[in-house]
Every structure is written in C-alpha cells, then in structure tokens.
Amino acid sequence: MSKEWKIFAALITIFVVAYALPLGNPKIQEAIQEAFRLLQWYVRNHTLACVVPALFIAGAIITFLSQTSVMRYLGPKSNPVLAYAVASVAGCVLAVCSCSVLPMFAGIYNLGAGLGPATAFLYSGPGINVLAIFLSARVLGFSIGAGRFIGAVSFSVIIGLLMASVFRKGEQAKVEAALQMPEPEKPRRRIGKTALFLACMVLFLVFSDWFNPGNVAVKTADGRRFKAVVIHETKDAIRFQLEEDLGDDKTGDKIELQKTEIADMQEQKTWVISVHHIKWYLAGLMGLLVGLMAWRWFERDELSEWMHNTWEFAKLLVPLLFGGVFVVGFVSVLLPEKQVAKWVGDNSLRSNLVASVIGAFWYFATLTEIPITQALMKLGMHKGPVLALLLAGPALSLPNILVIRKVIGNSKTIVFILLVVVMSTIVGMFFGVFWG
C-alpha cells in the first residue's frame, strides 16, 4: 500500500470513529476517560524518564557506533553464540518495558545487526527483567517465577534463531549489500571511548527509569487504612489495587482516590525503594558524564548529526507509542478483568491462547503485570494461562507492535508476534499440566 493510500485509510478510520462513536453511552465515556488517564500516566511517568533517553541512545548508536562493529558482533555472519549472548545480556541489563526498548532495537537493526540477534534483544529487554521475575516468584509463587525466568531466557534465543531461519534469504541479501559498501572511514576515536559514552547513557536510562514496585500503606482523610499496589498515578488521582479487603471492595479490586482524599501514604521499605529515592542523583551523575564526554570527545558536526538522528527516531516512534497507549486504555474498559478471568479458568488450549493473545496486545508498564495477574488468579485464572500471559505480555504490546512494523515490515512483525504467542501458549499448557 502506498503512503498516500495509508494516509487516506487513516483519515477514513478517524472519520468513521468520530462519526459513529456513541458518546452518550456511559461505557464509552468511561473508556475515553480511561484512555486519556493511561496516556497521561504514560506521559508523566514514563516518557521523559525512559522513552526520551532511549531515543537519544538510538541516535547515538546510529551516529557514533561504526557499522563494522555492529556487523562484527551482531551481524548475520557474526559468531552466533557471541551474537545471541551479547543481545540477551544487553536486553537483560536494560530491563525496560516493551515500548522503551524499541528505539535501541531500531538503532542496532538499522546499523546492520542481524534479524536474529536484533529480535533476541527486542524480546530480552522487557522479558528478562530480574526484578519482575523475583517479584513474580514472591507474589505469584516460586513455580511461576522460575517458569517465567527459564521461559524468558529460552524464548529470547529461540525466537531470534527462528526469525533468522525464516528470513534467511533476506539476511543473506543484507550481508551481500554490506559487502558492496565502500570501506568505512577510520573512526575518529577509539572504540573504548564510544563504548564508555554509550554505557553512561544506558546507565542514565537504567537509573531514570528505576522501578518502584508500588507497594504502599494508605491512610485516607476519613480514617480508613489499607495496603495496596499503586497501578497508575495521574495529576489529580491515584489508582490502587487492593492487597486486602476494604469495605465492599475485595482483595485484587481496583479503586481510585483523589489525592485530596489521601491523608498519608507510606512505601514499603526495600533496597529497591532506597535506590528509587536517589535515582535522579545517580541519573544526574551519568548525565553530567555524558555531557562532559560529548564536549571533550565529539566534534560539532557529529553532535549535530546525533540530534538529527534522535529527532528522526522521535518522529517515527513517539506518535505510534502514544496512539497505541491511548487505544489500549480505551479497550481496557470494554474488557473487564472478571470477563477475562472467565476465558482463562482452565488449562485448555483456548485458555492459554487467549492469555497469550491478550498479553501480546496489552500494554503492561514494568511490574504492573504482577498485581494485574494476581487479581486474575484470585478471580480463577489457571496457572498455565498465568505463565502464558507473563511470557507474552512484557515482550509485546499494541504500541510496541505498531513500531516494530515500521522498523522491520509487516511480514517479519507478523512472524515475530506468532512466535511469541504460539510459544507462550505451548509453554503455558505444559506448565499447567505439571505445576497447575
């Protein structure tokens, strides 16, 4: 489909939705509010801390990292053991959500990384999240935490290998095109300096987006007390998921309080929270080092090219991310948790497939998949679909899929989604048989 036809189709879609949307329906009104609420949460809590640094890293990868280096370690003809090890470990170190890993994925892929290592990195970033796996074991049970860890590590490599195998002709063409390119210019600085510069940028991202598990003890203005997990925080209100019964609301239910209704809110004391409270000092230190290195090591034309490449990634990715988050917020009201729990109450093929598909298209901010899954388990979700959801959910989402399609095209995106969904479904079924 040509660009003009795509624009025409988008305009028609917007027209039809605006023309036919039943705004008088209370459910639709609630869905619109939830869409803006989730988008505001994403903008306030996730964009500046994670997406923007990731865009700058992607721009730096394209600008300062030589294609020769990427092809050597991650290219289609690189040592497969080294390539997949580098991709998996890099994703594990980042431990970001499915949206925030995208700029860096686009950067290394556009610079020449093989499809296999690139998609291994794409899955491992949000999938192999050490803190999320630890919390899964503590909150949902040791067997689920262990299954999530083993499954996520295996998936990152297996999916990468399968992607490279399915599209091996395209990968061969990529290698041949790279061989026809002229010899690259000699780098202006040693690879060690570039690596240190990128490492400090990555550490800035790690600290700026440091996780807060959200476990709190709340006292309201009218004297009620309860323990809960913070799900979303907007400018005026906070949404909680209860960890204990509160009046007519049961454990696992979600309640929303205006900030004026909250008299006191105490966080659970852990080392993760301790780091969270000083994260901006640590991120600031990394940012200072990045600025100092940029000033001393790079020429003005390189910095200008860096900003240009960062802006190009922002124009490509940010509208799709915001649009995807908005749609997920809208649809979430139309698919309540109690209805979802009815579809995943046993270990059948259908239940595991439903859990995998929902996980693949839903947007889970880092760590929020755990309290959401906990609530579904209390409503009767079987352990097999639980693991299927946890394997498919963090690695994919609707915003994520929209961006992947822009980077690698329709066919590769479809195969990637199918691999994640099918493998999650199969592993969930086996897990449910033996540990359900």
Distinct helical segment count: 19
Sheet with the most strands? 5 strands, antiparallel
Strand order of the largest sheet: 4-3-2-1-5
Approximate helicity band: over 70%
Give the percentage of residues in beta strands.
5-15%
Report the uncertain regions: none
State the end-to-end CA separation.
Answer: 46 Å
Oligomer: single chain
Label the overall shape. Answer: globular
Counting DSSP E segments of at least 2 residues, the number of strands comes to: 5
Q: For the residues shown, what is the average pLDDT?
A: 84
Number of domains in the coordinates?
2
Q: What is Rg?
A: 22 Å
Order of helices and strands: HHHHHHHHHHEEEEEHHHHHHHHH
Q: Structural class of the secondary structure composition? A: alpha+beta
Blueprint of the fold:
Layout: H1 3-20, H2 26-64, H3 67-74, H4 80-94, H5 102-110, H6 115-127, H7 130-140, H8 142-166, H9 168-180, H10 191-208, E1 215-220, E2 225-233, E3 237-242, E4 254-258, E5 262-267, H11 271-277, H12 279-297, H13 300-334, H14 337-343, H15 349-361, H16 369-378, H17 383-392, H18 398-408, H19 410-435
Antiparallel strand pairs: 1-2, 1-5, 2-3, 3-4
Written account of the structure:
This protein is of the alpha+beta class. The protein contains 19 helices and 5 strands. The protein is globular, with a radius of gyration of 22 Å. The model has no long low-confidence stretch (mean pLDDT 84).
In short:
Helix content is 70%, strand content 7%. It is α+β, with helices and mostly antiparallel strands and 436 residues long. It has a five-stranded antiparallel β-sheet.
